[in-house]
Amino acid sequence: MPYLIDGYNVYHAARKLVQEWVSQTTVSFCTLVAEDLRRLRDRGVIVFDGGPLRGISYEVEPADYVRVIFSGGGSDADTMLEDLIQKNTAPRRLVVVSSDNRLKKAARRRRAQSLTAQEYLEQMVRRRVSPQRRPPEPREKRQGVGPGQLGKWLDLFGIEGGDEFDANDRIKY
Q: pTM of whole model > 0.85?
């Protein structure tokens, strides 16, 4: 599900939630979110009020997971996020992250999922502490069955043709 994130709303909540995030910059916050979305194998948009600080690049790593947008002087992040929710062609797939009642209502109207900043950050912390790992693949998947096992499998499935296999259980071509 694509994420729409109220930048400063979640950024300030993050600084209050985790002690090590107190001195975090907006760029490092965006990097944390990008890493989280990579774990989720999803993408997101973070919208901040105003404009970027001069001389600071908001190119976030890992790239391709987060797009950072600034509202500029003529608008605010909430208005831009409302527009993004309204214009989305699949709003039920959206996850809107903000503690702002205005954005929660906009998400509800379009039947998008809504998370408060606190809920999203708690989920992010849990994912960081216990990342989901795939179970290891069996050795046989990459290396094939061990010596002497092929005959047992052929017998089990009632396949004849022991002449076609050599002593190392490899198929002769």
A: no
Residue 147 lies in a domain: no
Identify whether the C-beta of residue 94 lies closer than 8 Å to the C-beta of residue 107.
Answer: yes
Domain that holds residue 103: 3-129
Dist CA 51 CA 71 (whole Å): 7
Q: Considering the domain boundaries, does residue 18 fall inside one?
A: yes
Q: What is the domain-level CATH number for residue 37?
A: 3.40.50
Measure the N-to-C terminal CA separation of the chain; round to a whole number of Å: 48
For 107-124, write each residue's pLDDT tens digit: 999 999 999 999 999 999
Structural domain total, the chain: 1
